[in-house]
Amino acid sequence: NDGKYQLVIISDVENFEFRKSTDYGATFTSIYKSNNDIYVTRGGASSYNGYYMAAPFEYTGSSNYRLAFFPNYLASWENRTNAKNGVGLSMSGDGKYTTECMGDKSTTYTFVTNNNYNNNSNYNTTIYINGVVQSATNYYDVRSVSMDASGQFQVACAQTGEIFISSDYGINWDTLLVDATQDWHSIVLCQKV
User: Fold this and answer.
1) E strand or H helix that includes residue 129
2) Which residues of the chain fall short of a pLDDT of 70?
3) What pLDDT shows up at residue 42?
4) 51 DSSP 8-state letter
5) Cα(70)–Cα(30) distance, rounded to whole angstroms?
6) What is the pLDDT of residue 10?
7) Phi, psi (deg, nearest 5) at residue 44
8) So what's the pLDDT on residue 193?
9) Distance (Å, rounded) from C-alpha 16 to C-alpha 36?
10) Residues contacting 8, CB < 8 A, separation 6+
11) Pick from 97, 92, 128, 93: which is nearest to 115 by CA?
């Protein structure tokens, strides 16, 4: 909440690096570096105090790289293979809840949620959109997701003009509005703290 912990992701397709700062951005040190065509998709998220951070990423040589998870104030990072390598990510203030939006990375899943600090066995794809479970026939190209500090209330936007809302930690989503003239790419849920 005060900017002490910062994560920078450097990617130019051939080079990839996670760098961290624990001194408000005065200095950055490398956490991980590779020249193996690893690249980050889009988006990242942090808990309120920076203890937990996460970023979807992809390694072109393997489908087993999905989400980089950083516990303990960026002390290390862990690969979460059961995540789905989304294009956007949001995290609750305490880091317990995350929601990924898949965008063009999937034609089956719109959202993937986790309710246990990104524990690899707690990723959930049984998500309902307008009362119907997400699937290849109930899929939206959602590009951005945001949640309040508790994680209970969430909003998301799609390139095809839909704005979605959820009030149960991202399990059930309803369409709030549709404007087919809009190509939504980013959304933020604000709250008074």
Assistant:
1) strand 128-129
2) 13, 36-43, 59-65, 192-193
3) 67
4) S
5) 13
6) 79
7) -165, 170
8) 42
9) 8
10) 18, 19, 20, 21, 28
11) 97
Do 177 and 163 contact (CB within 8 A), yes or no?
yes
Helix, strand, coil share (%) of the chain residues, nearest 5? 5, 40, 55
What's the CA gap between 189 and 88, in Å, rounded? 14
- Res 61: pLDDT: 62
How many residues in the chain?
A: 193
- Spatial contact of 90 and 73, defined as CB atoms under 8 Å apart: no
Number of helices (H) and strands (E) in the chain: give both, helices first. 0, 18
Beta strands in the chain, from DSSP E residues, in sequence order: 6-11, 16-21, 29-34, 38-40, 45-46, 53-59, 67-70, 78-79, 88-91, 98-101, 111-114, 123-124, 128-129, 132-133, 142-147, 154-158, 162-166, 172-178
Sheet holding 88-91, edge to edge: 88-91, 98-101, 111-114, 123-124
What is the Cβ-side half-sphere exposure of residue 109, based on CA atoms within 13 angstroms?
Answer: 21
Q: What is the pLDDT of residue 62?
A: 61
Write down the residue that tokens 């994680």 correspond to. 151
Residue pair 85/124 in contact (Cβ under 8 Å)? The answer is no
